[in-house]
């Protein structure tokens, strides 16, 4: 909702946004008047275009008015485009109870024992283009003149390749795979079960309390789940509480807190694929397609006798899932088990599956047409549905499991590298651990990662965190190293491998290679005892570490 108001004597445009947890003020408003702005804890904010901005300034007790009504609120300073103020959930909750009519654009609430009504400004002015020569004339006539720059915004997809007519024909042939399911999934050999530990009594918890706005969201979500037959009314002795989690697009996801039920569930040890092992299968592939299943968990039925265990409570009722819910123990194992069973004839030949991410890879266009057709036929046969907008077909390069894959090899995802490069200075162990966890995901792409990051990992020890100039220098060095990560080749197990090692006073390292191209890096810093070894001993330690780390590559292969 857009509402006009004033900050001091300046007219402003405010956006009331219940999807924002905090309220923000544009720094342009502050620059025109004397306001006190102070430093605050840095906070990352996701803006409308999907980018993240960081704000570390706050304007305390800002006085402003909306349609003649006075308000006061602490505001974070953020360079938002298009608005002077953004009034978020923190401002709205100060005014509850309130009535919001989104259709009429009206907000009603009590303030200082008086009823206040705010009405969205709907007046629209005529907009027309004017020539540069007429700008002064328009301004003199009292018109508001805006200067706009137009830029081409590229598609969010990394690849702008078009799908070939042959592949489009295959997709059209299996168009029902990309439709929304019209009924519940059929019972299968792999339905989700909830085996409980012996002696477990029905688990029942009181529902959590929710805000007025969340109750409305919960009711809408429940209505949608009932309409799609994903849940049904329950009289089960089991009951778990629910909570709402905001998704990237600003909408809400209903999550059931199955923590107590999960702790009483016997765990399924079905193996989950190792990402590095999956990527090692791609040697020789030049064309790729990626299929993303639509709400994958909801395409698996609950076993009839276990439906009652999924029961949950809301503020208005008691329900249970007919399909496998999110957040329940063993769900990943069940899903991977089904995917492996469905694609078993083609796994590692031209199909890789990691939960609901299905990759089809081929050496050329002709074989890819055949491979894609076979994969889609299996999805159709097993009543599994994909989301077309999240799929990519016939690509020479695409993102898969956080990596960019192509015929040239495997590279880091630029989006994740950008997150690392923009990571703010850690203020505590938790934030430092988050940064190292993110960089560690790509450690095999970076030469000497272990040695570079060692001073930072030392700060994870108990009572060791102390950010100083040396830590800042290492922090920047690690960011630089991540930005220059290598493109790794895909292993060809028919050809010999080479290992090159290196040792220094502080660490050891090695690179696994084929035909002079790196497949992976490892590095390790040395402790006080191993630092005292001779140069030959350190070199041998590096070789021993490399052979132990890469034994799954070297066993049965030639080593040169």
Automatic annotation (TrEMBL):
- PANTHER family found in the cross-reference section: PROTEIN CBG26694 (PTHR37984), PROTEIN NYNRIN-LIKE (PTHR37984:SF5)
- State the superkingdom: Eukaryota
Name the source organism.
Rhynchospora pubera
**Coiled coil regions, renumbered to chain:** none
GO BP terms: namely: proteolysis
Sorted alphabetically, the keyword list is: Endonuclease, Hydrolase, Multifunctional enzyme, Nuclease, Nucleotidyltransferase, Protease, RNA-directed DNA polymerase, Transferase
- Tell me the Gene3D superfamilies matching this sequence: 3.30.70.270, Acid Proteases (2.40.70.10), HIV Type 1 Reverse Transcriptase, subunit A, domain 1 (3.10.10.10)
Q: What Pfam families does the database record attribute to this sequence? A: RT_RNaseH_2, RVP_2, RVT_1
Its name, as the record gives it, is: Polyprotein
KW Protease (keyword) present: yes
- Provide the GO MF annotations for this entry: endonuclease activity; peptidase activity; RNA-directed DNA polymerase activity
């Amino acid at each position: 909702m857009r509402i006009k108001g004033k900050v001091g004597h300046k007219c402003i445009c405010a956006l009331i946004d219940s999807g924002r947890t905090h309220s923000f003020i544009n720094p342009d408003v502050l620059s025109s008047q004397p306001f006190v702005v102070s430093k605050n804890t840095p906070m990352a904010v996701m803006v409308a275009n999907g980018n993240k901005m960081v704000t570390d300034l706050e304007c305390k007790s800002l006085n402003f008015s909306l349609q003649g009504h006075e308000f006061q609120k602490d505001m974070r300073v953020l360079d938002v485009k298009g608005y002077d103020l953004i009034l978020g959930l923190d401002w709205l909750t100060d005014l509850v109870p309130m009535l919001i009519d989104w259709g009429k654009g009206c907000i009603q609430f009590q303030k200082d024992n008086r009823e206040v009504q705010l009405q969205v400004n709907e007046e629209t002015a005529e907009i027309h283009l004017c020539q540069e020569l007429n700008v002064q004339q328009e301004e003199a006539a009292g018109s508001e003149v805006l200067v706009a720059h137009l830029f081409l915004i590229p598609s969010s997809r990394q690849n702008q390749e078009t799908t070939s007519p042959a592949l489009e024909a295959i997709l059209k042939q299996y168009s029902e795979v990309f439709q929304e399911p019209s009924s519940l999934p059929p019972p299968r050999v792999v339905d989700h079960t909830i085996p409980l530990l012996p002696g477990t009594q029905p688990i029942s918890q009181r529902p959590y309390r929710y805000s007025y706005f969340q109750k409305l969201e919960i009711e809408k979500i429940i209505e949608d789940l009932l309409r799609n037959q994903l849940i049904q009314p329950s009289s089960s002795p089991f009951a778990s509480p629910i909570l709402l989690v905001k998704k990237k697009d600003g909408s809400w996801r209903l999550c059931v807190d199955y923590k107590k039920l999960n702790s009483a569930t016997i765990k399924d040890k079905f193996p989950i694929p190792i990402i590095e092992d999956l990527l090692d299968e791609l040697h020789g592939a030049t064309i790729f397609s990626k299929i993303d299943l639509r709400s994958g968990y909801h395409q698996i039925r609950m076993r009839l006798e276990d439906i009652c265990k999924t029961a949950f409570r809301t503020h208005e009722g008691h329900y249970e899932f007919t399909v496998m819910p999110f957040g329940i123990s063993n769900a990943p194992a069940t899903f991977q088990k089904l995917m492996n069973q469905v694609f078993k004839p083609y796994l590692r030949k031209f199909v890789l599956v990691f939960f609901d991410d299905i990759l089809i890879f081929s050496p050329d266009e002709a074989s890819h047409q055949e491979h894609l057709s076979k994969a889609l036929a299996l999805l159709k046969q097993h009543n599994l549905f994909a989301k077309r907008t999240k799929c990519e077909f016939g690509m020479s390069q695409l993102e898969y499991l956080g990596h960019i894959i192509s015929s040239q090899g495997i590279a880091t995802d630029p989006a994740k590298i950008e997150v690392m490069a923009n990571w703010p200075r850690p203020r505590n162990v938790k934030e430092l651990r988050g940064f190292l966890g993110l960089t560690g995901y790509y450690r095999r792409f970076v030469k000497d990662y272990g040695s570079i990051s060692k001073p930072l990992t030392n700060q994870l020890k108990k009572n060791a965190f102390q950010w100083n100039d040396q830590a800042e220098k290492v922090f920047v060095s690690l960011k630089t190293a991540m930005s220059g990560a290598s493109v790794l080749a895909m292993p060809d197990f028919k050809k010999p491998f080479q290992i090159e090692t290196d040792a220094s006073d502080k660490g050891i390292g090695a690179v696994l290679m084929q035909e002079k191209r790196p497949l992976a890096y490892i590095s390790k810093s040395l402790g006080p005892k191993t630092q005292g070894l001779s140069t030959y001993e350190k070199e041998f330690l590096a070789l021993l570490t490399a052979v132990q780390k890469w034994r799954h590559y070297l066993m049965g292969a030639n080593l040169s």
